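Handoff note, outgoing to incoming analyst
You'll be picking up this chain. Sequence as last confirmed:
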Amino acid sequence: MENLSFIRRLSQIGTLLHTQFCGREVGRDAFGNRYYRARKTPKGLRERRWVFYKGEPEASKVPPEWHIWLHHLADAPIPDSARKPWQKPPVMNMTGTPQAWMPPALEGLDRPKATGDYQAWHPEQ
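Most recent structure output, in case you need it:
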């Protein structure tokens, strides 16, 4: 387990205990996340589904086929065989990491010089 805060560790321990006693594993994804459903569902209520993340909890690590299952849009996750050849594999949100996308002007590339085809606005005029 990664270096997490004490409160986050307690939360994960609580989720783990709940999962052990009340959950049944449905499957795993390419990121190593495990997906569970409740063993018993009270009459008149919707089945409870949840994910136990591998490593840091990050919602963008849930691939689309599992996202639709978690949100009750499908009864089962879409199998990998249904993936089209033109579809890219899911990638977690990289914002705030060194892999985050940056515009070329901020990546250290030289920016073209201003051509002087504009005039600066001055509030006095």
